[in-house]
Amino acid sequence: MTLVQTQPRPAGADLVHRTAEEVMDAAGPQVCDDMSVEVALAVMAAARTGRLVVCDQDDQRIGLVTRTDLTAVRDSGAHTDRVRLRDILGDHGSFASPVTTMAEAEHAMRTRRLGVLPVVDEQGSALGILALSR
Fold first, then answer.
1. What is the DSSP string of 1-47?
2. Which residues contact 24 (CB under 8 A, 6 or more apart)?
3. Helix (H, G, I), strand (E, B), or coil: what is residue 102?
């Protein structure tokens, strides 16, 4: 796996020394953690995205869910309409700061086996997403 570069790279720039802010993709919609799995899937479809940044009632980011995560929960035998995003977050609470280097981000993603890593500012607002490609 290698990091996906989502913006043009200046000639001669070394990717591992660049910051998350320089190469991140758009964060996508932010939703509240009390949203149901079904509604979250509908939001994803409407927004034409494969991921949602999940925030608590104080608008602080607490995780990230993907279409794959939500589909697996919906299709499981234990799914009910009472399952909320906060119930399924698991280990999706990892985030990078805009000044995190790509080497640090890639190491964190590989260590935690994350396909995407949200980039957040000091107030906890999602700025973008870093992704690993296969």
1. -EEPP-SPPPTT--GGGSBHHHHPEE---EEETT-BHHHHHHHHHHH
2. 6, 98, 119, 127, 128, 129, 130
3. helix
Cα separation, 50 vs 33, in Å, equals 17
**pLDDT tens digit at each of 134 positions of the chain:** 344 444 444 444 455 567 776 766 666 688 999 999 999 999 999 999 888 888 888 877 777 788 888 898 888 877 778 888 888 876 555 777 888 888 888 887 787 777 777 787 777 667 777 877 65
Ordered DSSP codes for 47-72: HT-SEEEEE-TTS-EEEEEEHHHHHH
